[in-house]
């Protein structure tokens, strides 16, 4: 690409990209340019998930510097480190460039609050373009674009420590090894001394009146705190007392947290107004607990009438099934609509390397086969729930033909008709058309994940797409075989230049 730009000049280089690589994987430069492709796909029963895929073209050194600065708190910079923090939830210089060994996910690095506002405006335009393209469209957002990632990393650690404390107490009561939704703590054995200091008295007295609490009840202990930095309190596993994760927060850090939540609210409100489903993308495991929790809070607010906000579940995680079952159960208890996208995961190589090098337990399933089993287990659970509930919807985001066939078979067995619009399918633009278009023409709700943006600003994302792994190359080989067979069929039948509408 760099050589072509130098030899051809910018204008000819952009033309070449549009005729080849950019033209294959990107819909166009702006909302107007993408309309013909969206309308053409719509004619074949294929919808769109619009994704404004612009990235900064940073050097690895610039990305590392920005990441280390934006993921380190003021108190940690003053003291020169964070001795009480968990390794997994600290920024590490060797993994400062979050683009490294990541293929199909765009990456945002924090610069300042003004840049986050610009990202929000870009997402708003994307939502508005989705609303204008069709009545049943999606728009994708990433939370690392909307605020300082320090908050996501710290809040993720807090959530993890609360969950670990719950399971520690379950083990003390002889309940280790139970499924997460079957694990209930006996309150009389906990309160006092361990629960009351943590805020059950007062706003949470209803929990003390219960004989048992499960993890969903437990999670409610960190709700409804007035100052956002108060969210970042962790239970001391020995005393049961609440302690701050960091020694102090600056006023600016507290404001940055609030602004991130405000931007999320603006986007969700606009999506609701325009009838667009908002899909929150998953990210690295040291951000993901916070991303999932904040998405859950948006679902509680905006999914009361229909599924507007969709969370993303990565099935290469060992805890994927627990995450799905807990969120479904919470939606059932509180009466809101559950919306989910199931993916295998985009950060596998990076996550494996980070865990091994830094020295914490690998959060991912050890093999591809186990990830497939987890995907199928999560999917089957959600499909069973769909059979009995009008308030559950799922997108099967997969290029795996076996996964798609399994979903279609289970839908038939459970009596879930495609016209009910409860189960969606999704593939990336420019890939696996042999899956997408037959699904659309057979009446299944299916979508292309449609990146768009100016050529030069999308190239950083596209250049990493050029480095796809062997699994993608196998899929590409399969597609070439299908295309070659179709070419030969048309040649033999004399319909090489037939009207594509036929």
Q: What is the domain tally?
A: 3
Highest CATH level, the class of the largest domain: Alpha Beta
**How would you describe the shape?**
globular
Would you identify the regions where 5 or more consecutive residues have pLDDT less than 50? 192-205
Number of helices: 18
Q: What average pLDDT do the residues reach? A: 85
* Helix-strand sequence: HHHEHHHEHEHEHEEHEHEHEHHEHEHEHH
Q: Provide the CATH topology of the largest domain.
A: TIM Barrel
Strand count, sense and barrel status of the largest sheet are: 8 strands, parallel, barrel
User: Biggest sheet, strands in spatial order?
Assistant: 1-2-7-8-9-10-11-12
CATH architecture of the largest domain: Alpha-Beta Barrel
Helix/strand/pairing category: alpha/beta
Helix content: 40-55%
Compute the gyration radius: what is it? Answer: 24 Å
The proportion of strand residues reads 5-15%
Can you count the beta strands? 12
Distance, first to last CA? 37 Å
Short description:
The protein is α/β, with parallel strands linked by helices.
How would you characterize the overall build of this protein?
Converts proline to delta-1-pyrroline-5-carboxylate. Keywords: Acetylation, FAD, Flavoprotein, Mitochondrion, Oxidoreductase, Proline metabolism, Transit peptide. It is found in: Mitochondrion matrix. The protein has 502 residues and is an alpha/beta fold. It folds into three domains: 2-67 and 86-146 and 248-472, TIM Barrel, CATH 3.20.20; 158-244; 473-502. The protein has helices at 2-19, 21-25, 35-43, 60-70, 74-79, 113-133, 149-172, 205-208, 215-219, 251-274, 288-302, 320-334, 348-358, 368-388, 401-414, 433-441, 455-465, 470-493, and strands spanning 46-52, 138-141, 185-186, 212-213, 233-235, 242-244, 277-280, 309-314, 338-343, 392-397, 423-428, 446-452. The strands form three sheets. Strands 1-2-7-8-9-10-11-12 form an eight-stranded parallel beta barrel, surrounded by eight helices. The protein has a two-stranded antiparallel sheet with strand order 3-4. Helix 12 (320-334) links the parallel strand 8 (309-314) and strand 9 (338-343). Helix 6 (113-133) runs parallel beside helix 10 (251-274), helix 12 packs parallel to helix 14 (368-388) and helix 14 (368-388) packs parallel to helix 15. The longest helix is centred in the first third of the chain and has 24 residues, at 149-172. The radius of gyration is 24 Å and the shape is globular. 41% of the residues are buried.
């Amino acid at each position: 690409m760099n050589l072509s730009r130098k030899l051809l000049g910018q204008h000819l280089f952009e033309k070449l990209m549009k005729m080849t690589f950019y033209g294959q994987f990107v819909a166009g430069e702006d909302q107007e340019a993408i309309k013909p492709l969206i309308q053409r796909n719509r004619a074949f029963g294929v919808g769109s998930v619009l994704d404004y895929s612009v990235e900064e073209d940073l050097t690895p050194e610039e990305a590392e510097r920005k990441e280390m600065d934006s993921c380190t708190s003021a108190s940690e910079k003053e003291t020169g480190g964070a001795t009480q923090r968990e390794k997994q939830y600290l920024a590490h210089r060797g993994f400062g460039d979050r683009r490294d060994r990541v293929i199909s996910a765009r990456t945002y690095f924090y610069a300042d609050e003004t840049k986050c506002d610009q990202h929000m405006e870009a997402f708003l335009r994307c939502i508005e373009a989705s609303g204008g393209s069709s009545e049943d469209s999606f728009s994708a957002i990433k939370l690392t674009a909307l605020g300082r990632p320090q908050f996501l990393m710290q809040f993720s650690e807090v959530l993890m420590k609360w969950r670990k404390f719950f399971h520690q107490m379950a083990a003390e009561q002889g309940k280790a090894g139970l499924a997460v939704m079957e694990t209930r703590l006996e309150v009389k054995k906990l309160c006092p001394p361990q629960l009351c200091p943590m805020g059950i008295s007062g706003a949470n007295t209803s929990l003390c009146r219960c004989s048992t609490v499960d993890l969903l009840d437990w999670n409610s202990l960190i709700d409804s705190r007035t100052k956002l930095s108060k969210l970042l309190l962790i239970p001391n596993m020995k005393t049961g007392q609440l302690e701050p994760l960091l020694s102090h927060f600056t006023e600016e850090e507290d404001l940055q947290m609030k602004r991130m939540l405000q931007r999320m609210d603006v986007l969700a409100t606009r999506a609701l107004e325009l009838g667009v489903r908002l899909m929150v993308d998953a990210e690295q495991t040291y951000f993901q607990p916070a991303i999932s929790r904040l998405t859950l809070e948006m679902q509680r607010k905006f999914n009361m009438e229909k599924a507007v906000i969709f969370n993303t579940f990565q099935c290469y995680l060992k805890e994927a099934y627990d995450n799905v079952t807990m969120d479904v159960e919470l939606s059932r208890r509180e009466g809101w609509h559950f919306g989910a996208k199931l993916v295998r995961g985009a950060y596998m190589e990076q996550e494996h390397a980070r865990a091994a090098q830094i020295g914490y337990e690998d959060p991912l399933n050890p093999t591809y086969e186990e990830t497939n089993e987890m995907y199928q287990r999560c999917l089957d659970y959600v499909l069973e729930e769909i059979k009995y509930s009008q308030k559950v919807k799922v997108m099967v985001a997969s290029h795996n033909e076996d996964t798609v066939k399994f979903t279609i078979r289970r839908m038939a067995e459970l009596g879930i008709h495609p016209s009910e619009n409860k189960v969606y399918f999704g593939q990336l633009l420019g890939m696996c058309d042999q899956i997408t278009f037959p699904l659309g023409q057979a009446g299944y709700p299916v979508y292309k994940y449609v990146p768009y943006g100016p050529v030069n600003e999308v190239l950083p994302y596209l250049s990493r797409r050029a480095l796809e792994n062997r699994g993608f190359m196998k899929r590409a080989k399969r597609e070439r075989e299908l295309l070659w067979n179709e070419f030969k069929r048309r040649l033999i039948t004399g319909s090489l230049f037939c009207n594509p509408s036929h």
